[in-house]
Amino acid sequence: MPSPENLILAAQEARRRAYTPYSGYKVGAALQTDTGAIVAGCNVENLSYGATICAERTAVTKMIADGLGQKISAIAVASKDGVTPCGICLQVLSEFVEGPETLVYRVNENGEVQSMPFGNLLPHAFVSDEVRRTES
Ligand code: THU
């Protein structure tokens, strides 16, 4: 993994575009993918609160829909207080991360960065051979 600076910058930039009229809590996320692309997303809130999508899942859906990769080698998340991704986002990210050692960089509004392996955040993702894949 090259220096995470550009990945962190992309997350901070996406955070500025967050649509948050209900919580005012802006989040930006950026993914380093196997095609070399950096894919960014922000949270997009909705009047029907449950329809809100988090920054991390916005980035994942962009990655797939725009054909920008299938594997994530690093993740950056920018927020006011440098939070980790929520449980739903961790499960969605787990489908695409390279492995438990994939680093998650968290950055707060002061630009302070902390990193942690994905496997520390979600050590027991939902996986089951009983849910069969019909394509690779
Ligand atoms: N949010 C994210 O974008 N990512 C997370 O991992 C946690 C929460 C958003 C959802 C909502 O728009 C706002 O933060 C407050 O929960």
Give the structure's gist in a few sentences.
It contains four helices and five strands. By secondary structure, it is of the alpha+beta class.
Number of helices: 4
Query: What Rg do the Cα atoms give?
Result: 14 Å
List unreliable stretches of 5+ residues.
none
Question: How much helical structure, as a percent, in the residues?
Answer: 25-40%
Strand order, main sheet: write it out.
2-1-3-4-5
User: Could you report the average pLDDT, rounded to the nearest whole number?
Assistant: 96
Structural class estimated from helices and strands: alpha+beta
Strand content: 15-25%
Element-level helix/strand string = HEEHEHEEH
Describe this protein's structure.
Helices cover 26% and strands 21% of the residues. It is of the alpha+beta class and 136 residues long. The mean pLDDT is 96.
How is the topology of this model organized?
Elements: H1 5-16, E1 28-33, E2 38-42, H2 55-65, E3 72-78, H3 87-94, E4 103-107, E5 113-117, H4 118-121
Parallel strand pairs: 3-4
Antiparallel strand pairs: 1-2, 1-3, 4-5
This protein binds tetrahydrodeoxyuridine.
Residues 20, 23, 25, 27, 43, 45, 52, 54-56, 85-86, 89 line the site of tetrahydrodeoxyuridine.
